[in-house]
Input
Amino acid sequence: MSLNLLDIPRVKTITKADFLEHYFKPQKPVVIERFIEDWPAYTKWNLDYIKQVARDITIPLYDNRPVYYKDGFNEPHAKMKLTDYIDLLKREPTKYRIFLWNALKEMPSLQQDFKFPDFGLRLIKSIPMLFFGGEDSYTFMHYDIDLANIFHFHFEGKKRIILFDQNQNKYLYKIPHSLITREDIDFNNPDFEKWPMLKQANGYQTELSHGEVLYMPEGYWHYMRYITPGFSMSLRAIARNPKNFGKAVYNVFIMRNFDNIMRRIKKQKWIDWKNQQAIINTHKHL
Output
């Protein structure tokens, strides 16, 4: 048995009007296959090119270890020179990923290789984020703290992506006061005996190749697994739905700070309680 996943619709390219009408307004994902072929990045961006412009930059790295109470919010698990990290990616599988890194501040020449596309949404130009991963590395199922509209541009290799929208929360073993589901769920090959409510969840899936763009609507849960070493860039626009915008403000200014306070007070008991509540809350719907 596998998850109930529809293939994300694909188009070769798209106009602003069609994007707004068919995907943004109904908040449905889409893969755009040939939208950036006129960008210099389309032909230039690969791991070797990034290594060439990296110089002595040190980057934050994350792996798939469970959340520990001493870990700060989005605190990296290790640091490494970017050139050494790219050598590692090309040499062997590694769980280390670069996550939510504003590389264009440290490598400004990359900004000449792409342009901010006009999808009819006001993109936040100050925070184009890069993500890198090695073969078979993955992110936990999560949604972004700001519930933004995200355009995810993939470079080099292949990447598998699974999406769920927020109305699937009751099936996903969501951890309270957090942005993730239970970390011990393997969304690539879920154990339905252990996580029976996942059988009722309905989502989307796709594989991204070099140069393809995925639109992820506001607040969509996403799980990403690197089939081969590669990297992606995300551009974002703030949530337009008032409910989502309000939730984003709550997450940034209240939820995140409350969680950090409880980690300091309750320590690992807080993390363990949240993990248990994810099961209790979800199994209420059995």
The helical segments are 16-24, 40-44, 47-54, 82-91, 103-106, 242-266, 268-283. The first helix runs from residue 16 to 24.
